[in-house]
Please model this.
Amino acid sequence: MKQLYYVSITYNLHYLCSMKSVIERYKKATEDQLQTSNPISEVKFWKREVDVLRQQLHNLQENHRQLMGEELSGLSVKDLQNLENQLEMSLRGVRMRKDHILMSEIQELSQKRNLIHQENVELNEKVHGTKDVNEANSNALLTNSLSIRNDPHEPICLQLCQPLQQNLETSSGITTLGLQLQ
Model:
C-alpha cells in the first residue's frame, strides 16, 4: 500500500510539474507572438527577463556566500544540513579528482623509474663485462700479491706481513719485509 501511495504521489508530482512546464511554454509562445506585433509588449518582456536574470544572479551570489561560510545566520537547521551535505559531496568530488591525478603521476613516475633501472642494469652489465676482462689482464701482469683496483673509491688497507722465505741462491742472507695490499 505504501509503495502504491508513493507511486501515486510521484506520478501526481510529475504530472503537476509537467503541466506547469506546458503552461509556461504556452505563455512564452503567446508572449513571443505578441512581441513581434507590439513594441510595448517587447519592452515589457525584456524588463521581465532582466528581473528574472537579476533574481537568478542574486540567488547565485547568496548561494556562493553560503558555500563560503558567510551569511549563515538566516538559515534553518535543515538548510544548514543541506548546505553541509552539498559541501561534503563537493569535497568528495575534489578528493576523487586529486587522487586520480596523484595516481596517474605515481604510475608515470613508476614507469620512469623502471626505465631508469633497466638502463642502469644494462650499463652495469657493460661496465662489469669490461671490468672482468680488465681484471684478467691485470692479474696476469701483476706479481707479489699486488693488484690494481678498478674502483678508485675503494679504500686501500696496508698491513705488515711475515718475511718472505727466499732462495739462498738469490739472496745473501738479508731478510726482506714486504707490504701487502688487501
